[in-house]
Write a structure and sequence with these properties.
By secondary structure, the protein is an alpha+beta fold. The protein folds into 2 domains: 9-66, Arc Repressor Mutant, subunit A, CATH 1.10.10; 75-252, GAF domain (Beta-Lactamase). Helices cover 49% and strands 20% of the residues. The chain has a 6-stranded antiparallel beta sheet with strand order 5-4-3-8-7-6, with helices on both faces. A two-stranded antiparallel ribbon has the order 1-2. β1 and β2 form a beta hairpin.
């Protein structure tokens, strides 16, 4: 994955500030300055400009992401071809299973939640549309990686590593490659509490007509409520069915 070699430092700093505010769900000038490693006056100048453009809002001593980003985010999502093909099917899958359904795409080696649909029993998580997650610790990410070239997977591992998030996280390169091979054979991936304790997921890749993954769709559910029979038998069938319909509409409509 080749990255541009040149960038504008001031713009880089602005986005670093925004990422800190987003990560911390609100932050003050001192906290941002410490995280970004620039002076408070410089941080304040960035924040003033962003506030004037309504890209951040001030609440007391804290700054939060502003609503001006909402239009940009919706525009970016809506122009993503897989979103049009997948949204209605994700809604149907959520209603069918009663659980939380997620649609994930890959960008620069990270997963980005593109859409979420909530059934009547959907669990509330730390995820939201636009959130970035590492690929190796989610069923969605592994489903995407399984239908990419091994060299591409290794590049992602080299750049982002395999950090351990729970005791179940697959944090070994060889073990991950072996699991990806299994996923290719059965065409769905499993997250067994690998990113969050108490949560497990079933995900299937959405592939183009060359069988390369362009996205993945999943059903997420709490361990204590969904028994093994439903998780390992019913949910894979439902997720694979949804992925198949999305692929047909995406590739041939």
């Amino acid at each position: 994955m080749v990255k541009p070699s040149r960038s504008v430092q001031t713009i880089d700093r602005t986005f670093e500030i925004l990422e800190v505010i987003h990560e911390l769900d609100g932050a003050g000038v001192s906290e941002i300055a410490e995280r970004v490693d620039i002076g408070k006056s410089a941080v304040h100048s960035h924040l003033t400009t962003l506030s004037n453009r309504e890209y951040v809002d001030k609440d007391g001593d804290e700054y939060h992401i502003g609503l001006s980003f909402l239009g940009l985010g919706a525009y970016a999502r809506n122009r993503t071809p897989i979103y049009d093909a997948a949204q209605s099917r994700a809604d149907t899958l959520a209603n069918q299973t009663g659980e939380l359904v997620n649609l994930l795409v890959e960008k620069s080696g990270m997963g980005i939640y593109l859409y979420q649909a909530k059934g009547e029993n959907a669990v509330e998580l730390d995820t939201h549309e636009g959130k970035r997650v590492r690929m190796h610790c989610t069923a969605l990410g592994k489903a995407i990686l399984a239908f990419r070239l091994s060299e591409e997977v290794d590049e992602i591992i080299d750049e982002h590593g395999l950090p351990t998030l729970t005791s179940q996280t697959v944090a070994d390169r060889e073990r991950l490659h072996a699991e990806l091979e299994e996923i290719r054979e059965r065409r769905y991936a499993i997250d067994r509490e690998e990113r969050l304790n108490g949560l497990r997921c079933i995900a299937a890749p959405i592939t183009d007509d060359a069988d390369r993954s362009i996205a993945a769709i999943s059903v997420a559910c709490p361990v204590h409520r969904v028994d093994d029979e439903r998780f390992y038998e019913d949910l894979p069938e439902a997720v694979l069915g949804a992925a198949n319909v999305i692929e047909l509409e995406y590739n041939y409509s």
